[in-house]
Automatic annotation (TrEMBL):
GO terms for cellular component: cytosol; endoplasmic reticulum; Golgi membrane. It comes from the Eukaryota. Belongs to the GOT1 family. It holds the Pfam family Got1. This is Golgi transport 1A. The chain crosses the membrane at residues 12-35, 47-67, 73-95. May be involved in fusion of ER-derived transport vesicles with the Golgi complex. It comes from Myripristis murdjan. It is found in: Golgi apparatus membrane. GO terms for biological process: endoplasmic reticulum to Golgi vesicle-mediated transport; retrograde transport, endosome to Golgi. InterPro entries: Got1, Vesicle_transpt_Got1/SFT2. Its main location: Golgi. Keywords: Golgi apparatus, Membrane, Transmembrane, Transmembrane helix. It is a multi-pass membrane protein.
Length: 104
């Protein structure tokens, strides 16, 4: 995929995606610790989500950024699906949008 400025755009995207993945994982380790991070990702019922999330990170690092981001997004949803309704409820209670409040 060539961007508006040629091949440099694709390389720049790859570098940004790679740095993003590395910083996210190291930030998570620094915030909650290595042991808790490993426990979070390798719980039995979260194995599928962890597989897709870490597989997406690996795809991004192996220069497949678009497919890697899609796979990683699917894994993120699987990992945090129990948390997403609570987060959505919080956002809807803070931001008063009448149409969205009627849906939930």
């Amino acid at each position: 995929m060539k961007g508006w400025n040629g091949e440099k755009s694709c390389i720049f995207k790859f570098i940004l995606f790679s740095v993003d993945m590395i910083l996210f994982l190291t930030g998570l380790i620094f915030i909650i610790g290595f042991q808790r991070t490993a426990q979070f990702f390798f719980q039995r019922y979260k194995f599928r989500g962890s597989f897709f999330f870490l597989g997406g990170v690996a795809l991004v690092l192996f220069r497949w950024p678009v497919i890697g981001m899609l796979v990683e997004s699917y894994g993120f949803v699987l990992l945090f699906r129990s948390f997403l309704p609570m987060a959505l409820g919080f956002v809807l209670s803070v931001v008063n949008i009448p149409h969205l409040n009627a849906v939930s």
